[in-house]
Amino acid sequence: MGVELSYKPPVYDITAPDLYIPLMAFGTYLVLAGFILGIDGRFSPEALGVQLTNGILCWLFQVLLLEATLIHTSGDGDLRLLDVVAYGGCTFAAVSIGHPASEYCVHIFILCSHIVGMLLYGNVLHQDHENNFDC
């Protein structure tokens, strides 16, 4: 059970997460939320601020949920915080697609964040550690 995780530098690891996609997906989520609020006639800067706050709080909640789940399953707590933030933020892409179609996007958001986070962490956890590049 004493498997030690070792990370390769991002230049050598094609599965290394970055924050570009999560941040762009979060921006798309905010633009779509403002557009939908405008269509419904409920748009105001305060309403968009509420959407921003809710999005950030949901992102924080899913990062905490992913951290707790991954620490519980892996046991050693050797996790990079920015990796978990990037994995959790990828669900904004799914929410941006599902947001116009659903009034209950928070439930979809939580479910997708858990699924995407576990799949992506499983991909990193189970990659072949014997081919690490030493710098």
UniProtKB/TrEMBL annotation:
Cell compartment(s), UniProt: Endoplasmic reticulum membrane; Golgi apparatus membrane
| Entry keyword RNA-binding | no
**GO aspect biological process, one term:** endoplasmic reticulum to Golgi vesicle-mediated transport
Q: Which InterPro entries match?
A: Yif1_fam
Q: Which domain of life is it from?
A: Eukaryota
Per the record, membrane topology reads:
Multi-pass membrane protein
What family classification does the UniProt entry report for this protein?
Answer: Belongs to the YIF1 family.
PANTHER family named in the record: PROTEIN YIF1B-LIKE, YIP1 INTERACTING FACTOR HOMOLOG YIF1 PROTEIN
Q: What is this protein called?
A: Uncharacterized protein
